[in-house]
Design brief:
- With 296 residues, the chain is α/β, with parallel strands linked by helices.
- The chain has two domains: 4-87, Orthogonal Bundle (Arc Repressor Mutant, subunit A); 91-296, 3-Layer(aba) Sandwich (D-Maltodextrin-Binding Protein, domain 2).
- It contains ten helices and eleven strands.
- Strands 3, 4, 5, 6, 9, 10 and 11 form a seven-stranded mixed β-sheet that branches. A two-stranded antiparallel ribbon has the order 1-2. A two-stranded parallel sheet has the order 7-8.
- Strand 7 (189-191), helix 7 and strand 8 (215-217) form a beta-alpha-beta unit.
- The longest helix has 29 residues, at 60-88.
Length: 296
């Protein structure tokens, strides 16, 4: 870009309201900054600063231009950082929904890094997926409905097939576990709203409005913890809740099962996809397929 240095000089001078401070930041002389700004003014055919004896101030044109130049330079910087990060280092940035992050992905990533010690995988949990224009992630794992509208095809990992479950202590308290719905003291545990329980009741108990009550948690991971602690009944599954079901920390109350959601993966459009990232993604898809395989 012909005037990139002039734009950098203008942005720094506008931010500091000083040619001297801009020169110090850019490691050039005061004169060089002044010349860059004059060249830019000539190119734009507009004055950008009012020059006083010992200070400067932006003109109306300068005030209009400054934030746009600042934003543009930041975009260029982020793009270069993302390119360097993805192409020259074996680092993979993964962002995932909290429950799958803590109960499935974390252990798999640890296993993968034992097999591939030269690969660094950074895992970050987030209920809200990052902006698709963001340049700080390589692979996103989240609920399918939260990724809808993406310009890239999603890869389905596995579904959440939910069935009512609770802690052993809560189960023992029931007079008749087969009639658990009749126990008005039982709380339903919701994650991020009542919609999933509403769907379960609509399918299996359409005359009941019990789904309207209960404790709402911000995400599935917190809801699982609450159920394990005996706070109520959750729609658990055999993949995300595998550890809790296998250890007996959660007990299945009801065989009626609802397909609640799909977990999907999505690769970033704004970062270079390295061979290491492709291999990890393929490996992750294989592990997801294994999770779906029936067990004896």
């Amino acid at each position: 870009m012909k005037h990139l240095n002039a734009l950098r000089a203008f942005e720094a001078a506008a931010r500091h309201e000083s040619f001297s401070k801009a020169a110090a930041e850019l490691h050039v002389s005061h004169t060089v900054v002044g010349q860059h700004v004059r060249n830019l003014e000539e190119w734009l055919c507009a004055p950008l600063f009012v020059r006083h004896k010992n200070w400067i101030e932006l003109t109306e044109e300068g005030r209009m231009l400054a934030p746009r130049i600042s934003q543009g330079l930041q975009i260029l910087s982020d793009a270069c950082d993302a390119f360097h990060h993805s192409s020259s280092r074996n680092i993979i940035e993964v962002v995932a929904e909290p429950a799958i992050s803590s109960r499935w992905l974390r252990r798999l990533i640890a296993d993968y890094q034992k097999e591939q010690p030269h690969i660094q995988i950074n895992l970050r949990s987030a209920w809200s997926p990052p902006a698709r224009t963001s340049t700080d992630w390589d692979l996103l794992v989240h609920f399918e409905q939260r990724l809808s509208g993406s310009e890239r095809a999603m890869n389905r990992l596995f579904p959440i097939d939910g069935f009512p479950a609770c802690s052993p202590a809560l189960f023992k308290r029931l007079d008749d576990p087969d009639r658990w719905l009749q126990d008005k003291s039982l709380l339903l545990i919701h994650d991020h709203g009542t919609n999933i329980w509403r769907q379960w009741f609509a399918r299996f108990e359409p005359d009941s409005t019990a789904w309207e009550d209960g404790q709402i948690h911000s995400d599935l991971a917190l809801a699982i913890d609450a159920a394990v602690d005996g706070e109520g009944v959750i729609l658990a599954d055999h993949i995300i809740c595998k550890r809790e079901m296998a250890s007996g920390a959660l007990v299945q109350l009801d065989e009626r099962t609802l397909r609640c959601a799909w977990y999907c993966s999505l690769t970033s459009m704004h970062r270079i996809t390295s061979p290491a990232q492709k291999r990890f993604h393929s490996w992750l898809m294989e592990r997801a397929a294994e999770s779906l395989a029936p067990t004896d």
